[in-house]
């Protein structure tokens, strides 16, 4: 019997959560019609902030490092943003400028990373709690590169057969940890581990099959788009908390259900397209939609954590 892949573990756990859910549900009657309108948005590749020039080692380093710190959305209102850029866009621009000027962080530099060293290229206050979290994630990346991959970013891809296998490799690192608990059961999401694998594929340094098997990348924007569009229905208390811009507790039933509902809804949408669109493609389509005023004008779910 073949082992269950990481994406299959994620989709099975999210489907189970939705069977128990009390605060969020997928409005299944909306799925088929909504799926019909996704093709145009899915044809547009999401704007990539994880590409970095032609050097394969630098490109791999940028995708790995940026996904290792691809969290902090709950803190975005408290950080300094570059003009016309989102919180994540600000972080990506800072790392890109640093890489363009000095090359990718070496494994040794990553292993010694501290809050001040990561805050400087990002243009942030080193005392901000997010900088401490970023530094810890990058130190973990450096430690794995040194111990397991000869200090090379590209070494992470070597010996891997599929993108789900690559995601599973990342999932074993503390920097990419993303498992919640619901009703005493572990619920894996591994948003950033899967996205790192997908981004390495997009940059051309991980030419591996299996991208269609990845799940949606569970964060707070995809649930926002789906709730605004009526595919997700939230109970009044959760809706009120989001609209009041209250922070959701990471790992709370409401926050886990939101993420699980987004993953499960995307699986239903993919099935409704007859397989024409894979979950990751639908995720990209919803991400594209999320930039529109219809979604940005409404408060989105926010939680301070290292998952997204």
Briefly summarize what is shown.
The protein is mainly α. The protein has 15 helices and four strands.
Task: Please describe what this structure looks like.
The structure is a single chain. The two termini are 33 Å apart. The chain has 15 helices and four strands. The longest helix is centred in the middle third of the chain and has 20 residues, at 129-148. Helix content is 52%, strand content 5%. The strands form two sheets. The chain has a two-stranded antiparallel sheet with strand order 1-4. A two-stranded antiparallel ribbon has the order 2-3. The chain has helices at 6-20, 31-36, 39-42, 56-68, 87-102, 107-111, 115-122, 129-148, 163-171, 191-202, 221-228, 236-243, 253-272, 279-289, 293-296, and strands at 24-26, 179-182, 185-188, 232-234. The mean pLDDT is 95. It is mostly helical and 308 residues long. A hairpin with a 2-residue loop joins strand 2 and strand 3.
Strand proportion, as a percent range, falls in: under 5%
- Measured distance between first and last alpha carbons: 33 Å
Strand order of the largest sheet: 1-4
Could you state the order of secondary-structure elements as H and E?
HEHHHHHHHHEEHHEHHHH
Radius of gyration: 19 Å
Average of pLDDT: 95
* Count of individual beta strands: 4
Which spans of ≥5 residues are poorly predicted at pLDDT below 50? none
Number of helices: 15
Q: What would you call the shape? A: globular
Q: Describe the biggest sheet?
A: 2 strands, antiparallel
Helix content: 40-55%
Query: Structural class, please?
Result: mainly alpha
